[in-house]
Amino acid sequence: MAMASARSIVFSGALLCKSLPAVTARLSIAAAPHRRLSSSGLSLRAACSRRIRTFAMSGSGAAAVESSQRIASQLDQLVGAREAIKEVITKMHCNPILIRLGWHDAGTYDKNISEWPKCGGANGSLRFSIELEHGANAGLINALKLLNPVKEKFTAVSYADLFQLASATAIEMAGGPRIPMRYGRVDTVGPEQCPKEGNLPSAGPPNPSEHLRKVFHRMGLDDKDIVALSGAHTLGRSRPERSGWGKKETKYTKDGPGAPGGQSWTVEWLKFDNSYFKDIKEKRDEDLLVLPTDAVLFEDPGFKEHAELYAKDQDAFFKDYAQAHAKLSELGAKFDPPQGIRIDESTS
Ligand code: HEM
């Protein structure tokens, strides 16, 4: 997360768009949240230029002003992109595939490789065909197609940010927790920078708990993160024609919403809650999916303590999920500015 910094520059203001609700956006390129200034009611640009002037007058120079303006414009684009993503999600009910896209971009990370972008992670490399064609990514081309028009409109938002923004927005729109996200991720530039195939987990390995630990510990994530993040399967479906897992259709998926078919983990597979943990524990409904890597969460003692807690306490799940998701979204990410950019929102 953001590092403590001696200097704090803060912009905040309201961005008003004709077709959108008034959005109060706050940009912080500093680490100390308690030092943020609030000026809701001012336009974003007015608030920004006032702060920029203040900063310039303090003698910090033209370069700092230019950089502040660039960041303010990036924030503007991020807020616009988020609204455009919300429209796509509302129309297409595509929350699950957007979450899977963000996860598969980030989840290639290897903490043992220090060089960027060789280490993999949330760097937008999943936009290249060579990586989209990895077996684990079957079907994710459809998620990219949904986001490409947003990217064309908001060109300053990197693919890496776009994928993570779409994923966090999809969680929140499905009723999930607010995730403490940072933006400003730098993109890889060519397919030669894509990670090798095989870094993402398999659903049916010979020893599921050993496999999950090997893959997620390589990313720098722990047992609690594994269980919390698996809870994202409360949303979405598995399709045999993509991953090879799940039924062609069930009574819960045959009519959509969105493209019909597949097998979901939960009955209400567009609602983010803790039903995944209840359902995979009970295994009572043949129309609901339990992968070997889901089942092991209630079998392995190190995973079970968290899974049991989440099955009975949704608040605990939401709290741990939000933290684990934020961590996942930053794996292998290079930020510009280095502290990242935060967006806070309150509709008025
Ligand atoms: C723990 C290891 C994991 C395994 C083995 C696994 C495996 C799978 C498989 C086989 C599918 C079905 C894909 C398809 O047929 O289209 C799937 C879907 C999905 N996964 Fe995972 N996954 C894992 C972890 C995660 C994590 C960490 C997240 C997010 C934080 C996640 C989010 C999703 C979502 C939202 C879907 C539904 C996609 C859709 O409906 O299009 N998964 N996963």
TrEMBL record:
GO MF annotations in UniProt: heme binding; L-ascorbate peroxidase activity; metal ion binding; peroxidase activity
Domain Plant heme peroxidase family profile positions: 98-348
Alphabetized UniProt keyword annotations: Calcium, Chloroplast, Heme, Iron, Metal-binding, Oxidoreductase, Peroxidase, Plastid, Signal, Transit peptide
Gene Ontology cellular component terms for the protein in this record: chloroplast
EC number of the protein: 1.11.1.11
Sequence ranges of Basic and acidic residues compositional bias: 238-254
Keyword Iron in annotation: yes
SUPFAM superfamilies: Heme-dependent peroxidases (SSF48113)
Signal peptide from the UniProt entry: 1-25
Reaction it catalyzes: L-ascorbate + H2O2 = L-dehydroascorbate + 2 H2O
Disordered, as annotated region: 236-260
One GO biological process term: hydrogen peroxide catabolic process
Cofactor list: heme b
Subcellular location: Plastid, Chloroplast
Broad class of the protein's primary localization: plastid
Entry annotated with the keyword Transit peptide: yes
InterPro entries: Ccp1-like (IPR044831), Haem_peroxidase (IPR002016), Haem_peroxidase_sf (IPR010255), Peroxidase_I (IPR002207), Peroxidases_heam-ligand_BS (IPR019793)
Family under the similarity heading: Belongs to the peroxidase family. Ascorbate peroxidase subfamily.
Name of the protein described by the UniProt record: L-ascorbate peroxidase
